[in-house]
Structure formats: structure tokens, C-alpha cells
Amino acid sequence: MPGYSAIPSSVVVGFVIHYLLSILFGIVTTSIAMFLGRRAALERGWAFLILGLFGGLVIWVVDFYAIAPALFAQFGMVNPLWNGFVAHAIFGVVLGIYLTTRMQDFLMRVNRASGI
After folding, report:
1. Which domain holds residue 109?
2. Using an 8 Å Cβ cutoff, are 100 and 42 in contact?
């Protein structure tokens, strides 16, 4: 069985699309987190974890049950529940952890600079 001499273009296109969508979803989730504001970050850091988890699962539901079947017939042939559910939940939780730590660090620096 011969090996591939180069990466197929579909792999590169898929990687780029997933990377750009991850950036977009991260920006949207960060915007929602900034709207929640200072109180949620300092008093209830877990709120960002829940936000990330919920956001990741919403992305999965919209993608696999609305967008993908309409555009790609092969998505109707597989059951993406376990792999898609877990992957998007992990993405959301990691994003929530990142937002919690970054928001708390940012607010501590702001408070230190303002003398609070």
C-alpha cells in the first residue's frame, strides 16, 4: 500500500475551516463572557465553565443537525453523537477555563492599577 507523498487538499481545507470556526466561536463566547462581566468572573468563575460547555454543545447541535446535513449528505450516514458531543463539550470547557483564568487575571490587574 503506497503512502501519500503530500497532504490531500481536503485535509488542509478541513483544518483551515475548523481553525477559523474555532476562532469565531471563541470570539463570540468571549464577547458573552465580557457581557457577564466582573462579578461573574470573580464570584462565580464556574459560570464561564457552564457558558463554555453550553456554547460548545449549542455549536454541535446547530452544526450536526442543521448545517452539515443540508450541505454534506455523508453526515446523514454516521451517528456523530458520541464523538461530536464529547469533542464540542471539551472545546467549550477548555474555552471556559481559559476565560475564567484570563478574566480573573485581567480584573486583578485592573483593581491593582486603580488601587482597589
Report:
1. 9-114
2. no
Angle between helix 81-114 and 9-43 (nearest 10)? 50
CA nearest 49: which of 105, 107, 101, 84?
Answer: 101
Split into its structural domains, the chain has a count of 1
pLDDT of 65-76, one tens digit each?
Answer: 888 778 777 776
* pLDDT per position as a tens digit, 29-66: 778 777 776 666 556 667 777 888 888 888 888 888 88
The answer as to whether 92 is a domain residue is yes
In a domain, 82, yes or no: yes
* 79, part of any domain: yes
Query: What single-letter amino acid sits at 42?
Result: L
pTM of the model: 0.63
